[in-house]
């Protein structure tokens, strides 16, 4: 395969082939006189050995691969050095590069769509990284370098000299929709066109997605990775049937989330619109969110993200149409993401005086090792409290 990086191009990790002087087989920072704990002979093999630890957690794997890939490509393309020869000073230059990846035609994807990793138009960046994303990138790379040192592949960690400042926790969540903005988002969804079959399908899919994100406080990854077979019903101590949704989320942890009456109404409506029975069977493989057109496959995280951003953009335009005094509110809405709905859900539950233990368990902030076979009285109280105090109010 052609040495893509030597030609001044960049390519995904899977396609990169490097000559001996750039592949790290003789990198200046390679460990000497130490028996390595991994079989890697070059930098790409070492990165793949590190990534293999995260293969079972797709979100983490993709995030970690992205940061390692970016650094490797930058090192060989911009500096003409292998990753295993980078110095502390090189990493300081790279931190500045993250804030403005230049030349843009080499590093930044064209706007308007998300390119496949194997498309010639693919680039490692969608644009400059925010300060928060820059810090996250360095944290991940520090993890990579530390692991490679412990594995006996590198002699030292060039990031270990960086000043490690402990960030103070923010006193409160600020990335959420207040009542006014949340009401505007719901009104925007209700105003979506429904004249054609496709418009109607899109409307009900959006309404169901926002119900999941808000009433259940789900992450995008949890929407795309779980199925409708996770819904199940049990009778509580008073004999009342209550629905729950079992979710496998971040860190492969499983939790059960109350499926309130509002949510089950939306579930039944969405399923009927897609030609399904009102309620799913246990273990049913139907994805929580379906593509338009009847194919029962999961949407990608980027596709769900775009659906949410499209709704926020429509809501922002509605706000701007009211006058200049609403422009700042519209811009705030444009900066939002699907994760803001999770924060909005948590804020509403907490503000409604729900027991914080119930909020914690609904959002999965604490580890839940297994899903209980039987609902305990505390779970029943959590369901009742969620039913009474956490509503979407379509």
Automatic annotation (TrEMBL):
Subcellular location: Cytoplasm
Domain spans labelled Core-binding (CB): 41-149
InterPro entries: CB (IPR044068), DNA_brk_join_enz (IPR011010), Integrase-like_cat_sf (IPR013762), Integrase_catalytic (IPR002104), Integrase_recombinase_N (IPR010998), Tyrosine_recombinase_XerCD (IPR050090)
Ranges where the record places region Disordered: 370-394
Basic and acidic residues: compositionally biased ranges: 375-387
Keyword Cytoplasm applies: yes
Keywords noted in UniProt: Cell cycle, Cell division, Chromosome partition, Cytoplasm, DNA integration, DNA recombination, DNA-binding
UniProt xrefs under SUPFAM superfamilies: DNA breaking-rejoining enzymes
Domain Tyr recombinase: 172-388
Entry keyword annotation includes Cytoplasm: yes
PANTHER family: PHAGE INTEGRASE-RELATED (PTHR30349), TYROSINE RECOMBINASE XERC (PTHR30349:SF77)
Protein name (Swiss-Prot/TrEMBL): Tyrosine-type recombinase/integrase
